[in-house]
Amino acid sequence: MVVPSWKATASIHHLPGGTPMTADLTRPRPPAPTGLLPTAPTFTLTSADLTEQGRIPDIFTGVHDNVSPALSWSGFPEQTQSFVVSCFDPDAPTMSGWWHWTIVDLDASVTSLERGAGASDLQLDGAAFHLAGDSGDHAWFGPYPPAGDGDHRYVFTVSALDVDTLGLDDEASPAKAAFTLAPHCIARATLTATYSVPGEPGAAVFLRDGK
């Protein structure tokens, strides 16, 4: 199990990391991030642990055991030379969402990640490696939304690239990886699941749809 650098026990009165929540986080729900990306052909991404639009089991969250889920993909172009795997939360209360997981330079022969593969680079094949997510960890960091925020979406994406490496080092940010891969992405697969942490009983959630 990965122990995140700022992991703390969930509380209905605190944000992740134990910071007391005193501000009103009410805000509109952002659009789906995949709709803002350059158009690309699609292929299939599935998981033995997750379902499309389903709730993420606690074992995979930063609130609990923080184990990365299993992923498997198929139907990508024959000319694929590498993959980038990521998980992004567009609903975090920031202007840039929250990156939970980014693996780059995954060889085109790799078509799945076992449960727990996000623990460290030692679980990855070949030259693949993790970039530090917004938690600061070079590993998977599972969902840990603010209590009472409502369902956050966690967008798992596998990007098929026409290059075997992005030429990044492990100090690069996930945002830099996303920018660098854009002109090399020849196909994309996504799976979106959700997670929430309960807030005060009877209180309205902060994320508001359609406003």
From TrEMBL:
Cleavable signal peptide: none
InterPro entries referenced in this protein's UniProt entry, alphabetically: PEBP, PEBP-like_sf, YbhB_YbcL/LppC-like
Pfam families: PBP
Family: Belongs to the UPF0098 family.
NCBIfam families given in the database record: YbhB/YbcL family Raf kinase inhibitor-like protein (TIGR00481)
PANTHER family associated with the record: PEBP (PHOSPHATIDYLETHANOLAMINE-BINDING PROTEIN) FAMILY PROTEIN, UNCHARACTERIZED PROTEIN YBCL-RELATED
Name of the protein in question: Raf-like protein
Provenance organism: Actinomyces naeslundii (strain ATCC 12104 / DSM 43013 / CCUG 2238 / JCM 8349 / NCTC 10301 / Howell 279)
